[in-house]
Amino acid sequence: MKRLTLVLLIIKGAIVCAARYKRPNILMIYADDLGWNDVDWHDETLRTPHLRRLAFDRHTVQLDQAYVNQLCSPTRSALMTGHYPHHIGTQKLRDLGYNTYLVGKWHLGYCKYDFLPSRRGFEKFRGYYADKAGYFNHSRDLWKGGLVARGLDFFTETWNTSSVPNWSREGQYSAEVFADESIQLLRDQPKNHPFFLYLAFQSVHAPLEVPEEYVRRCDYIERWDRRIYCGMLNALDEAIGRVVKALRDLDLYENTIIIFSSDNGGQTMAGGNNFPLRGNKDTLWEGGTRTNSFVHSPRFIKRAAVRQQLFHVVDWFSTVLAMAGQNISKYGR
Prior knowledge:
By secondary structure, the protein is of the alpha/beta class. It has helices at residues 2-10, 12-20, 49-55, 72-81, 174-188, 212-216, 224-249, 286-289, 315-323, and strands spanning 25-31, 60-63, 66-67, 99-105, 124-128, 139-143, 147-152, 155-158, 164-165, 195-200, 256-262, 294-296, 305-307, 311-312. The protein is 28% helix and 19% strand. It holds the Pfam family Sulfatase.
């Protein structure tokens, strides 16, 4: 139980207050391949003002020693199940009465319907199944000594229904698309019912693609891949800012806990940077496994703090269940 006690202490205010008041909404935002040095409070040449505002707000707890697995799928499976990646499970907040939504990247199986988000605890899904896709065409390219095939990877699901391909977003940038889809789900969300929204952005995973206006904002960066990457970060940041603004406009912000993290470290061969940490994505050094992570809650966190305790992605499962009001005193036994 020592591990569980530590988990509860890390975000103590959010858990204790959630148990006393009505159940909070939970917005979990995941970036993809975001490096330790890929936020503007670590690298001042970048532009992530919305994230910085959240991270350093008085209602935020930063998790300075937060770790994940070194690749996408192992981290996302641990996040959804609370087990290390060799276990299989499912997301359980729907069983607690939450509306559960997923927007963005799944990457946890799609070879048959039983592996899709709508069969794994999510009522509604808007996004893509594989590890990566085009940011504008939302398609997956298959290569074997050259381009073999290209197919759409953007789908819509509702609880326990078939997957429906969505062609309506072709040409629109994915960060903006995922913000739009999230905001629409929030608008449709009943005000008196709690929700869990897992917003899993494609950014900043390769390929390096972003509208030209964002590249121009970073034209002072000489290295071309880092310049495009900077633009992708800025687009991601603005999308997050739009979703947070929607929470405010819809009177959902005060009772929402916002969690931010990444699935692994940055890919240095595709614009990412983990300085001063050693290694990058797909390595077990800190550059591949240590993330920028924080919890923001205007209602439940009253004083800013930086936690130095070790926190791993498998800990989110029990922590979020506790936030939702479940008694987890015997969790893990």
